[in-house]
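User: For my dataset I need records formatted as: sequence, then structure tokens, nothing else. Please produce one.
Assistant:
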Amino acid sequence: MSRVGKKPIPIPGKTKVEISGSHVKVTGPKGTLERDINPEINVVVENNEVVVTRSTDLKKDRALHGLVRSLINNMVEGVTNGFEVKLEYIGVGYRAEIKGNYMQMAMGYSHPILVFPPEGIELDVPAKDNKIIVRGIDKELVGQMAAKIRSFRKPEPYKGKGIRYVGEQVRSKAGKTAG
């Protein structure tokens, strides 16, 4: 039995989970998320908890058991509390600012980088903090957006410049030596 898959998911007070066949819909104070799951995995709501079970013991079903439970747990967590990823940018002249419905970044290129967030994602740039905050209810979308922003200028190991996750350790290398 999957250790992750057999744990029931508690449903908070203001959150509602609806299951119709292999379609799961979670509604909460922050919004609504929907997802189709594999029909081999059974999902039921009982005693204000979501219980995920599998119909067979095939290797594929065992692999999907914990995955589906994690996906549904992230949906419940997202519509209840939401998710956020913090990035920090380090470098002389590096800037980010919100302009209307997009973010404009100056990251050492000859042109500004414009980032248009998808629906459900909110970008925030606190003043004089060198941070970018990505918020949303869909954990997958939040992580994807943060990775996309980071990919514009990945942290480099010689001077440490670039965009990195807050708390990320970048190993620094020694430069060339005259000899």
